[in-house]
Design a protein that fits this description.
Helix content: under 10%
Structural class: mainly beta
Number of helices: 1
Order of helices and strands: HEEEEEEEEEEEE
Radius of gyration: 28 Å
Strand order of the largest sheet: 3-4-7-8-6-5
CATH superfamily: Lipopolysaccharide (LPS) transport protein A like domain
Strand content: over 45%
CATH topology: lipopolysaccharide transport protein A fold
CATH class: Mainly Beta
CATH architecture: Sandwich
Shape: globular
Number of domains: 1
Distance between the termini: 116 Å
Length: 196
């Protein structure tokens, strides 16, 4: 019994006095991501670089997909900043309905709105193309709008310019709000029906 107690005490003494294993060196950040940056107490900002993809699902349907090189999230404002923007809108069966490209953008975490600015180009599945300096997608209203100058090239090649723009989310039903000018290639192809 004494021998067993001696062995037990010796083992505990040796294990208790040994040096702990050295901690592994911290992982180096990869080119695809930056570490979380501390911005002060209770404020952490996440930064992802090198390519990010954000999917936004409604029920079990992919509604939007955002491709970007840089994605930054600020928890104080609940905003997510992207640079550049390549936002694709999908229909219920998975087909691409519209696409918006821009230099930069921002959205809230719930994707209730998305604002894009800098060389904004929007297009839809039928071939309509919109160019402007900035645009806002309001998910709750399911609308796209801007107060900036716009240039719209229709599916038939007609070009309209003006100030202000409103549209459904897929750029199918749209209107230019003021100062409208245009180059109509064939008046019979314009959406008013046949002219007589």
């Amino acid at each position: 019994m004494r021998l067993l107690a001696f062995i037990l005490c010796t083992t505990l003494a040796l294990v208790g006095c040994s040096k702990p294993a050295p901690a592994p060196p911290p992982a180096k950040p990869t080119a695809a991501s930056k570490p979380v940056v501390d911005q002060g107490p209770r404020s952490v900002q996440a930064v992802f670089e090198g390519g990010s993809v954000v999917d936004f699902w409604l029920a079990e349907t992919l509604a939007w997909k955002l491709h970007t090189s840089s994605l930054r999230q600020d928890p104080r404002t609940e905003k997510v900043w992207t640079k550049p923007v390549d936002l694709i809108a999908y229909g219920r069966t998975g087909e691409i309905m519209a696409r918006i490209k821009a230099d930069s953008g921002t959205m809230d975490r719930g994707m209730r709105y998305f604002r894009a600015w800098g060389h904004v180009v929007g297009s839809n599945a039928t071939g309509m193309e919109l160019k402007t300096d900035s645009i806002v997608f309001d998910k709750e209203a399911d609308r796209i709008h801007t107060s900036a100058r716009v240039r719209v090239k229709t599916e038939t090649g007609d070009v309209l310019t003006g100030r202000g723009f409103r549209s459904d989310a897929y750029l199918n039903r749209w209107e230019i709000l003021s100062d409208v000018k245009g180059q109509i290639r064939d008046l019979n192809t314009f959406p008013f029906g046949e002219l007589k």
